[in-house]
Design brief:
Helices cover 29% and strands 21% of the residues. It is an alpha+beta fold and 449 residues long.
Length: 449
Amino acid sequence: MWRVNCLSTSTHRRQYPGAQLVTWELQSSHVKSYLEAKLGGVVMQQAPCFTGSYREPLQNEEQVNVVFAHTVGMPVADVLSSLGTQVFFTMAPSADAEKGQADFVIWCGDTEVATGEGKVPSVMRVITNNIETTGASYIRSCAEQACSYIKSREHRYGFLTHLHGTFFIKRTADDSYAFSKAVLCTDTQPSVAEALAYIIMKSVEEGPWKYSGQSEPGAIPASALGQDASRAAHQSQGSYRRSPRPAAADQQGQPGQQGQQCSYPRHPQAALVLSDITLGRGQTGRVRLASFYGKPCAVKMVDACKQAELVRSLKSEAAAYDQLSMLQGVTIPELLGFGYWMSGGVFFLATAHVEGRHPDPSIRDALLPAEEALQGIHGLGLVHGDVRADNIVVQQTSGSNYKVWFLDFGHSHVPADPQECVDELQELRALFRASDSSNASDAHYCSYN
């Protein structure tokens, strides 16, 4: 058995919706006869160390993924490629929450056909349990995470491995996923390599998932991506490549309206170009300087598969900008765009980048335009919710004339309670009347926290 340090995994800290999971009876005879017909009797072998001879201690999930990729995934891809089907088994270099990547992506030519997720075996505990009968919330979260990647990429098949055992996943309806029993690393009926080759060949044969609008019993209800992302994906047909179809990005839905078709647009990978410049940090992590379809912007982004609560927060913020549309480019930044990116794995919100300084007592002449700007927000029925120096930018236009911008509506809410409006005005006035030594050092951020 492998020794694994499970402390580095973070799935137990993520939240996924509840799910009812169903069983896929993956018959060895069917797998072997299918591969015999497709591959002409070629034996599908996995590296010897996968069956138990590997003894090095594995310190984290990334090392587990390396072992699976080099002992099963890549050998299978090599065999299939040698028979004329160009298959690539790729592995994410590291856990990057901003990119929303699955641990493994399988390609046929330049087309994604399946994804996989790796976990440390000591955390998965009982490796021979059926997924749908386990009571362990962590294991169920792992299963739902794997399904969320299948869903966001419009695939039919995937897998969840923890080295000792690998669960293979078959999509049976729009929101329903069936799991095989764990195929153990020592099994031969079928072996893990044979089962992996089977789902790759079936993925190529059957093509991308075609949405019917119906779900079967045992469905995972829209998974961590939310129903809006599911409906956005329903609009997409054809080849399932890494970037979503541009046509989906052209459908500009209204923020905050769930239940409408394609409520949130999907953008191609080229839409956003990120820089290494950090403008600020907040509940969604880094706020980065970027360009959105060529326009400079400040962008917030979260993993759509793993950070469902933060996705909802960004959607609420987009709704706030929509409510304040008449103030965009006047006293609040223009909302340039929002929606899903990186094949649906990332949800982002991009606003115009505003430069200036933060309020302090040395620019008390800016208090009046600041009050007018905040009262304009209140007048449209919205409370900002986070009035502080980091979220206000002051620009000197001429002499003692100033223009004031309010940033970051991640904590805003409606309706605007009169007392809350009064309290926010008092908080604003205090920023210009009380000394705060931190303002000067933070001024370059023009924060979007």
